[in-house]
Amino acid sequence: MNYSEEQTVQMVEAYQASPGRVTVEKLANDMDKSVKSIIGKLSREGVYRREIYKTKTGDIPITKSEIVSTIAETLGLEVESLTGLDKAPKSTLKNLEVSMIACTQEAAK
Questions:
Q1: If you placed Cys at 43, which of 8, 48, 59, 63 could pair as Cys (CB 3.0 to 4.6 Å)?
Q2: Where along the chain do its domains lie?
Q3: What are the φ and ψ backbone dihedral angles of 46, each rounded to 5 degrees?
Q4: What pLDDT is recorded for position 1?
Q5: Distance CA 31, CA 80 (A)
Q6: CB pairs under 8 A, 24+ apart, for 36-43?
Q7: Taking a C-beta distance cutoff of 8 angstroms, is the pair 67, 94 a contact?
């Protein structure tokens, strides 16, 4: 048994109070265990939540293909009819997507 019942309760309470990588690292240091071991135990206890990757701007990442799909859907086209559009810079695609959605919403009024 790698963890006593007391350690498990302490670990779960600490993580639930402040979920995140910093807490996991602190627990690993305090219990003289590896970060992977702490994450594994918290996962088995059903409390560990993997951090969601965010871009530098804090957005959830989206692929160019997903943006092109949204544009095609907004225009009522098949994605295949926009072949090559995914080669445009991502910022250009995002601007086009936002503008099209705004135009569509304006037209619906």
A1: 48
A2: 5-44, 64-108
A3: 80, 20
A4: 57
A5: 55
A6: 37/2, 38/11, 41/2, 41/3, 41/8, 41/11, 42/11, 42/12, 42/15
A7: yes
In one-letter notation, the amino acid at residue 20 is G
Side chain identity, residue 90: K
Task: Name the residue type at position 74.
Answer: T
Q: Name the percent of the chain lying above pLDDT 70.
A: 99
Decide: pTM greater than 0.90.
no
**51-97 pLDDT per residue, tens:** 778 888 878 888 999 999 999 988 888 989 999 999 999 999 999 99
What is the chain's length? 109
The amino acid that residue 53 corresponds to is Y
Nearest-10 Cα torsion for 52, 47, 40, 5: 160
Mean pLDDT, residues 17-39 taken together: 93
